[in-house]
Amino acid sequence: MGGVYIGRGRKARRCYGFDEIALAPGPITINPNEVDIKWKIRDLAFDIPILAAAMDGVVDTNFAITMGKFGGIAVLNLEGVQTRYDNPKEVLDSIANSSPEDANHLVQNIYMEPIKEYLIEKRIREIKSAGVPVVVSSIPQRAERFGKIAQDAGANIFVVQSTVTTVNHISSEYKTLDFEKFCKNMNIPIIVGNTVSFNTSLELMRTGINGLLVGIGPGAACTTRGVLGIGLPQVTATVDCAAARDAYLKESGRYVTIITDGGMSIGGEICKAFASGADAVMVGSAFARASEDPGRGYHWGMATPHANLPRGTRIKVGTTGTLEEILFGPAKLDDGSQNLVGALKTSMGNLGVRNILEMQQTEIIVAPAIQTEGKVFQKAQKVGMGK
Length: 387
Description:
Blueprint (H helix, E strand, L loop, with lengths): L3 E4 L2 E3 L8 E4 L14 E3 L2 E3 L3 E3 L8 H9 L3 E5 L10 H10 L2 H11 L6 H12 L6 E4 L1 H14 L3 E5 L17 H7 L4 E6 L2 H8 L5 E4 L9 H4 L6 H19 L4 E5 L5 H9 L4 E4 L1 H4 L9 E3 L13 E3 L6 H6 L11 H12 L4 H4 L3 E4 L9 H6 L6
Parallel strand pairs: 6-7, 6-13, 7-8, 8-9, 9-10, 10-11, 11-12, 12-13
Antiparallel strand pairs: 1-2, 3-16, 4-5, 14-15
Helix pairs in contact: 1-4, 2-3, 4-5, 7-9, 10-13
């Protein structure tokens, strides 16, 4: 594989993020109201290909219900405050009201409270009672136990999520998850993540999973790339994992959904993720700005509570509008953080693509100046793309 020399005898592969590429329009344009953005995972179909991330500052039961009624998915974290506390509102208030200096230590202490299995069932039934899809997540070590509880309680999709996910995880301290066995024992679709490589994606798909989360460290509240020095820019990661999906489809005849997870807070980034090969995207900070959000305008990474090596932090994103405005508009802001669905449809219309599958075939160009060309006044005045 090609690359550039970074020193004597050592090559590195050039990879790309959202700010370094642009999408090239095709020979036709389409009315944005006539494009199709629906997506599927196994036999479940959804109107909006944007998932709300399984983060305590983003999703609670009320947010999941609202998102579900809009035709989307919000993933509830089964290892967060919603399943540790009978009254999580008080806990979330304390996180929102803490100083920047105290926030991470407070979060670490809050997450020392044991998970209560009866709350897992209770939260799932609360969402289920509203007649919307229930999607929940846990780490691999708890997936077998929590997966059974969730499935029995009526969950529609189960997500197994860790910083880096592989089929061959080695540990002498705890039992590792057998993904193939887990998928066979579960009757509902299984989404697994996170990963960024072709070979690992292919191995995970062969275990029987239905969806794959792509992304290591790109989230707004994630510090994995700084703490551990690992990660891959999201455009290259998505392209590589989507190539594994296509290879596996030829090999097996089975389609595994690719979900780009993290690094997207505005419409243009979401559009570029689909052009890179995603079937859906998962975002956190964009939804953390909704008035319905449980984080009160704050957002923190999933690994923030880690007792010995936090790989996330609490950030303030502010409250800028309702979930409906963030998804469908009308946008009150000029930075692309609202009307995400409208942005996707408008982009698809201008590119001349009718659906997500065609969007994945869009011409991508390397364009380092795409964020700055002609934007001197916006940058000077800190408006629009200059913020």
